[in-house]
Amino acid sequence: MPKRYAARMGRAAVRYGIVIRGTIAQPLTGPLERMTVSRAGDETILVGDIVDQAQLHGVIRWLCDLGVEIVSVNPLRPRAGDR
Questions:
Q1: Which end of the chain is more exposed for a tag (fewer CB within 10 A), N or C?
Q2: Would you say 77 and 83 are in contact if contact means Cβ atoms under 8 Å apart?
Q3: Confidence (pLDDT) at 5
Q4: What local confidence, expressed as pLDDT, does residue 24 receive?
Q5: Which residues is 15 bridged to in the sheet?
Q6: 63 close to 71: Cβ distance less than 8 angstroms
Q7: CA distance 11 to 20
Q8: Is 68 helix (H, G, I), strand (E, B) or coil?
Q9: Predicted structure pTM score
Q10: Which tens digit of pLDDT belongs to each residue from 32-78?
Q11: What are the angstrom distances between the C-alpha of 70 and each of 3, 45, 74, 79?
Q12: Are the C-beta atoms of 22 and 69 separated by less than 8 Å?
């Protein structure tokens, strides 16, 4: 859910970092399409805004369906200027 829509619904999106082992094919689709991708050694880091637990569970389920190994899922501190 885009941040703009979340604000209209009275929700604040939280930026999450999801670390997976290995690589993931790009371009990302489905619930991952708005996430940025970076590499750190043999891991891939997906970063994006997630509005609620339902969306977070959907992203995790999508990754599991792709067969990737999830290393960690962490909320990130807001960037300067984000509110």
A1: C
A2: no
A3: 53
A4: 83
A5: 49
A6: no
A7: 27
A8: coil
A9: 0.78
A10: 888 999 999 999 999 999 989 999 999 999 999 989 999 999 999 87
A11: 24, 10, 11, 24
A12: yes
Cβ atoms of residues 15 and 79 within 8 Å:
yes
Phi-psi group of 67: left, alpha or beta (phi > 0 → left; psi -120 to 50 → alpha; rest → beta): left
Beta strands in the chain (DSSP E): 14-21, 36-40, 43-50, 69-75
Q: Which two tokens stand for residue 61?
A: 């389920």
Calpha distance 70→32 (Å, rounded): 14
Set out the domains of the chain in order of their start, with CATH numbers: 3-75 (3.30.70)
